[in-house]
Every structure is written in C-alpha cells, then in structure tokens.
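re: ur question from yesterday

yeah so i grabbed the chain u mentioned. its 461 aa long if i counted rite. heres the sequnce exactly as i have it in my notes:
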Amino acid sequence: MSQTTPQSSFAALLPLLLFLGIFIGTGVALTASGTNMAFYQLSATVAIMPAIALALLQGGVGRGRLQKKITIFLTGAGELNIMTMCMIYLLAGGFAAVATAIGSVQATVNFGLSLVPPSFILPGLFIVGAFVSTAMGTSMGTVAAITPIALGVAAQTNIEIPLLMGVVLGGAMFGDNLSMISDTTIAATRTQGCEMGDKFRMNFAIALPAALLTAVLLWLTGANGTQVQLADYNFIKVLPYLTVLILALLGLNVFVVLAAGIVFSGAVGLLLGVDAQTSYSALRWAQDIYKGFTGMNEIFVLSMLIGGLGELIRFHGGIAWLLERVDALSRLLARGKKATTRAGEFCIGLLVSLADICTANNTVAIILTGSMAREIAEKNGIDPRRSASLLDIFSCVFQGLIPWAAQLLLAGSLAKISPLEIAMNNWYCMLLAVAGAAAVMLGRPRAPASRPARLQTTGEA
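ran it thru and got these structure tokens back, copy pasting raw so excuse formatting
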C-alpha cells in the first residue's frame, strides 16, 4: 500500500456507504417483499461496482489522475493480505470439494455425532472451532476446515444452517483473536510494543467469559428437539479431517495444512473409492479440485474488489478522516483526569472498529490504527498490553459481524447462504463486543504492575 499521508475527507467514505446501501438495501427490500434467498439475488461483486466507479471519479479524472487512481485500486486489489486470503479460498474450496466427493465429510459427521451427546452438538462445534483456530492462527482456515462438517450436521439434524455457520464463525474468531501465531496478534503487539504472552493473558480474561456464555447459550438451544440420525461410517474416511486438525495443532502454515488435506483426501478416495460400488480416479480427483476452485470465484473476485476499494478510500482520506474524528473524541472525553484512561480505551476500540468496517480486514485495520492507538495509550496512561488487547478484540468483533468481511463471505459461499444470515447468528462476536465494552467501563482486567509492559521497538511493525 502507498505510504503517503492523505488529506482527511469524509467524502472518501461515500463509496463504501453507497456499496452498503445498494447491497444491504436490496436484500432488505427483497426480504420484505417475501423473496427467497433475498440477499443472494444481487451479487456483492456487482453491487460494489458503482462504489468503485464513484471512488475512481472522486477528485476528478483529468491529467492522468484517473490512471493514477486505477493504479492505486489495482495495488490495493493485489495487496499481500488480499492475495493470501484468495489463495486460502482456492485451497479451502479444493479441500472441501474433494472431501465431500469421497464421502469424508459424511463419515466425519457420523463419527462426531456418535461421540457428542445430542444436546451438546452446538457448543461442541463451537469449542472445536475455537480450539482449531487458536492452533492454526487463522479464522479463514478454520472456517474452511469446519464448515463442511457443520453442513453435514445440518443434513442429519433439525438445526438450521445459519445457526450452525454462526457457531463455526464464532469459534473461528475466538482463535483469530487469541492465537499466538495470528496476524492480528502479531500486528497488535508489534504496534503497541508488548509481549505476545502478556497480551494473550489480557485478552483471554476478556474473551473467556464471552466464550463460556456462548457455549452455555448454545447448549440451551441445542437441547431443544435435536434429532440425530446416526449412520455407518468408514473411519479411514475420517482421517483427512483428523490430519488437517492435527497439522493445525502442530502450528503448520495454513497453506500446508489445506494442501495436505487435498492430497490426503484424494489418496483416501483413490484407495477406497466413493463407496463400495463407485471408484475414484485420479482424473476425477483433479476435476473435483478444480470444481472447488471455481466454487470460490465470486468470493475471490469480491475480496480483490474490496481490497482495491479500501485502498482508494485510504488514498482519498477516508481513513485519515476517521482517525481525526476519533482523536478529537478522545481529547473531548478525557477532559476529566479520572475519565482519561476509560476515554482513551473507548477511543482505541472505536478507532479500530471503524477502520475494520471500512477495510473489512482486521489485520489491516490494526496496522492502520496501531500508531495512533499507541499515541492515545501513552497520552491517557493506558498500559500497552491493554491497548494491544483492545485493538485485537474490537477488530475481531466487527470482522465476525460485517457481511462483507472475508470470513463471512467464505462461510456464506461454502454454505450457500447469505453472509448476513451468518452474522446475525454469530453470538460469540456479539458477546465479545459486550465483554470488551464491559472491560473498558469497569477497567478490568488490570495489567500486572510487576512485569515490564513496553518493549523497545525500532522501525515499523
């Protein structure tokens, strides 16, 4: 991304507002009229095009300005984090397609249902997602690995798909927020200058109550009328998913984990076939991988378009405008000495939340706002472990709730439902928002005074 500091401008946010107005407004209107799958009638990849056009036209198009803005758009679309997500999309689609084709998903679901009490399916799925995402350090990889299992559960129970996907996403965001190898953890600790272990302890004390309450609520929901239909399964076909989970727990790179899943699931298919009557050839394996790739086309393109639009918004000063407003609010709220710390913490949470809503990327949001958050923390006497924790928490809250975030787009693409439906069922992120707000208001947990809080850092994170 370009490193120049743009002049702040509220008008730069208008393209984002236009996109949201078109996409969400159309979905709401169609829902009100009784249209089935209302939010899938207008593709987000089409809804975002007028917004991109508006962003390109802002500031005029003469004397090479249009070409410059097109270059900025393409730079944002091809940014490293965007390309990383897109590659994860492809591998996730390939793994899901092959695992489904050979019967691995069905076998894994039946295996899991045989171990989990009917009333514990939902909290069990949430705990597995939280465990895997903490080990992998990526919510994207977790969504890719757990979603096919959740869809299998939906097929064999009376639990609705949006609720199951909300559970999967909640578990994925738990680990995204806490994992030592998560990009958000690295970005938050580097920008604030503190140790990962210290930030983890601070984060865990806030996230754990939200996770426990989520599990309890899911247990109460799952206890009502869940009818589980068990079927026979071949345990060998469960191994591809167990392999993915074990590799994730070992801390391997998400690309390695998903690629290994594709290879192992294909090998199992070649050995055992689809079923007793149907064989599985190397050619069909290749075709299924490609089928999985093509199934990710829409989300692949949309992620690039959102990345490009986000960079145009930054170029025109939209992010700078948000930073200025939050900084002014911090100064206003912090006039009283007793309110200084709470006001600063509130502004840090608000700052990164707004940045994430605009960029739809929690790691980018933390990087964009990290230096200002550190400045707010130093001015208001906020421990860096605390500011790093708040940055990570509130960026992950909205990353799990905005329908245009990559995690929701991936989950919606795999489950063939609207990302908005999933967001409405992501109870964990909602409760994490409450827990984060309560932590700010109560000033808890406090950073231990006995440990050195600030690291000496040089250069940019």
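noticed a couple things. The chain is about 70% helix and 0% strand. also The longest helix spans residues 196-222.
anyway ttyl
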